[in-house]
């Protein structure tokens, strides 16, 4: 445990210096352990495990673009993302680890206690065992606080889900070299540091219920049965929760998305170029090869394909106070690879560079409101990395933008206003909030400001 975050940063830098790592791009056709199937063009591992890169044909999307083809990551197995929580002196702390991921823009970030694919924790790679895994498999010591299957980035994964877990323990837990206990108050401060707390930690924390007892004392963080904030009072929501669930069900019913896997070699609009697979207009992302060395991982060296975004994304909630209660504008978004086709998403979720030369009526709704927000409207603005195990140097700008009181309450049918409490409740169920919304929800729920 650390007295303050300055002490944590000193420890973090010391542990990073103690480790040896590198990640460098290499041509896809030279990846050790991977090959291109001669019939389909799909990129597969020699074991048949881990994941494959295949083609996806999308039509009737209901999005700004109705149909397209793209490479997609197919990883049917479910991983475990788990955080151990323990109270010290009545203050809840999370056990997080320094973890090197090949796609991390800065090498090391703070990960959950356990962050492992099934192939990893079943030993397919032939490496070391995953520490603390016994707390997240039955029978386990400790008490389940949260346990739900949650989606991953559905623009790049096909129906990929991981088990998000929080387990509270009372017994002593041995702390390994690259692990540390952090209070929720410390995590709240560290969330403001770009590229530090990784996506997997953020999605798990979205399932934590935190109450600041007494309202202002950072030492009073604890778990509690309900999120309590004076700006999110019971009974003060614009829509009842059952109405929101009906809205979400109707959005799923309207979804006409058709998708099917196709050979990667049949994906038009994409081409092999200099050992990578790129979009012909150099948009969206590229499929690249990466050579990895990491002294602190279960396996110290490997190679793999990864997706590299061509530009930084923007992910934002518009917020507005309605009768004094803060509401978020949520989108029912058709997702390329979502398990159910539609998930609740932020108001805006896109790579703006992809829309620079398209007509205004084909740009994402509310993008101008986000990018044109006045400084005093922006409640949160930070750059954070996405999942570094499959995505190379993927970053998004996360924003919370509070609109003026004259912003319309009537919104298009695929959008609705929810309170923070209602959105938090939906995290308890899989296939409701997408991973981008869960990250923003974590920022929002740890965001500190005086009630206004």
UniProtKB/TrEMBL annotation:
| Example GO molecular function | lyase activity
Q: Where is the dTDP-4-dehydro-6-deoxy-alpha-D-glucopyranose 2,3-dehydratase domain?
A: 5-206, 242-442
Pfam families in UniProt: Hexose_dehydrat
Name under which the protein is recorded: Oxidase EvaA
